[in-house]
From TrEMBL:
Pfam families: Phos_pyr_kin
Enzyme class at the top of the EC tree: transferase
InterPro entries: HMP/HMP-P_kinase_dom, PM/HMP-P_kinase-1, Ribokinase-like
Entries under NCBIfam families matching the protein: HMP-P_kinase
Keyword ATP-binding found: yes
PANTHER family attached to this UniProt entry: HYDROXYMETHYLPYRIMIDINE_PHOSPHOMETHYLPYRIMIDINE KINASE THI20-RELATED (PTHR20858:SF17), PHOSPHOMETHYLPYRIMIDINE KINASE (PTHR20858)
Gene Ontology CC terms: cytosol
Biological pathway: Cofactor biosynthesis; thiamine diphosphate biosynthesis; 4-amino-2-methyl-5-diphosphomethylpyrimidine from 5-amino-1-(5-phospho-D-ribosyl)imidazole: step 3/3
GO molecular function: ATP binding; hydroxymethylpyrimidine kinase activity; phosphomethylpyrimidine kinase activity
GO terms classed as biological process: thiamine biosynthetic process; thiamine diphosphate biosynthetic process
Organism annotation: Streptomyces diacarni
Catalyzed reactions per annotation: 4-amino-2-methyl-5-(phosphooxymethyl)pyrimidine + ATP = 4-amino-2-methyl-5-(diphosphooxymethyl)pyrimidine + ADP; 4-amino-5-hydroxymethyl-2-methylpyrimidine + ATP = 4-amino-2-methyl-5-(phosphooxymethyl)pyrimidine + ADP + H(+)
Keyword check for rRNA-binding: no
Protein name in the entry: Bifunctional hydroxymethylpyrimidine kinase/phosphomethylpyrimidine kinase
Length: 271
């Protein structure tokens, strides 16, 4: 059951289908924090469990397909959903299962095609890349790859703004309605390109000199889903997500011995 219409007194409903980050900076944990910070009710389908801290991912374990399917049907069948965000799906079987489930929803879908962690650890099996391209991307309202994920999915190596256009065109060829190419790994200002192949929206923000950026991609995609659940159109939702994520990066804090997370509660901390 989709529940695409808001109800008085109830926050918008957003579902994340992703992996758990035991360190709390990314994955399901980052998604739910972001959804709460942006005034929505976050729900979760856990597809994988990681052993993860500020130094990296020490291991991960996929949940059975049956467990993922049961979680999704349990939530959507009873509570409903107004936007869905996908993250780490780990294997071809899980990607295809989630795609099958999403094919029945009318709610907007944000696909964060998680392939590699912030520390460079692989989070997607090699044989799952084709499944992401063929099964998941055609269902996406918006796909939000970083530059490593662009290269993994399309082969395009982004070196500047001109090649971001090439990357977006390559992503859109797989069927999503919009592509948000994240240029955070490029030098200079933090610039992203949102396009549906006809309209271009360049999202720019000053680069924040803070190394504690774990969870940035999950946060942006979840913020985008939350804004779509509130009824914003895709360009407005992307701008809102960019603004929230930029603040979270600026407020990122040290944790453990490695890379700390962005601060999902930065707006609350400012009050």
């Amino acid at each position: 059951m989709d529940d695409v219409n808001p109800r008085p007194g109830r926050p918008p409903l957003v579902l994340t289908v992703a992996g758990s980050d035991s360190g709390g900076g990314a994955g399901i944990q980052a998604d739910l924090k972001t959804m709460l910070a942006l005034g929505t009710h976050g729900m979760s389908v856990i597809a994988a469990v990681t052993a993860q801290n500020s130094l990296g991912v020490q291991g991960y374990w996929e949940l059975p397909v049956e467990a993922v399917r049961a979680q999704y049907r349990s939530v959507v069948g009873d509570i409903g959903v107004q936007a869905v965000k996908t993250g780490m799906l780990a294997s071809a079987a899980l990607v295809e299962t989630v795609a099958e489930l999403l094919s029945g929803t009318q709610a907007p879908v944000v696909v964060d095609p998680v392939g590699v962690s912030k520390h460079g650890d692989s989070l997607l099996a090699g044989d799952a890349v084709d499944s992401v391209r063929s099964a998941l991307l055609p269902l996406a309202t918006v796909v939000t790859p970083n530059l490593d994920e662009v290269a993994q999915l399309t082969g395009v190596q982004v070196t500047g703004e001109d090649s971001m256009r090439e990357a977006a065109a390559a992503m859109l060829a797989y069927g999503p309605r919009w592509a948000l190419i994240k240029g955070g790994h490029l030098p200079g200002e933090a610039v992203d390109l949102l396009t549906d192949g006809t309209r271009e929206h360049w999202l720019r923000a000053p680069r924040r000199e803070n190394r504690h950026t774990h969870g940035t991609g999950c946060t942006l995609a979840s913020a985008l889903a939350a804004s779509l659940a509130k009824g914003l159109d895709v360009p407005a939702a992307a701008r809102a997500a960019k603004e929230y994520t930029t603040g979270a990066i600026e407020a990122g804090f040290p944790l453990g011995s490695g890379l700390g997370p962005v601060h999902h509660g930065w707006r609350l901390a400012e009050r």
